[in-house]
Amino acid sequence: MGGSQGISDRHACKAALARRFDKAAWLEGADIPARNLHDAGYLPPTPPLGVVRPNDPQGFADAMAICASHGVPVVPQAGLTGLAGGAQPIAGAVAISFERFSGIEEIDPASATMTVRAGTPLEVVQRAADEAGFFIPLDLGARGSCLIGGNLGTNAGGNRVIRYGMAREMVLGLEYVLPDGTLVTGLNKMIKNNAGYDLKQLFMGSEGTLGMITRAVLRLYPKPGCTCAAICGLARYDDVLALLGAARRGLGPMLSAFEVMWADYWHEATVTVPNVRRPITGDHAFYVLVEMQGMEAELDAPRFEAWLETQFEAGLIEDAAIAQSMADVAAFWRTRDAAGEFVTFLGRHSSFDIGLPVGVMDQFAQECRAALSKALPGCLSVYYGHIGDGNMHIVALMPGAAEQPGKAISEIVYRTVKAHGGTISAEHGIGLVKKPYLALSRSKGELALMRRLKRALDPQGLLNPGKVIDLEEAP
Question: Which domains does the chain have, with CATH numbers?
Answer without folding.
Answer: 3-97 (3.30.43.10), 104-222 (3.30.465.10), 226-340 (3.30.70.2190), 346-439 (3.30.70.2740)
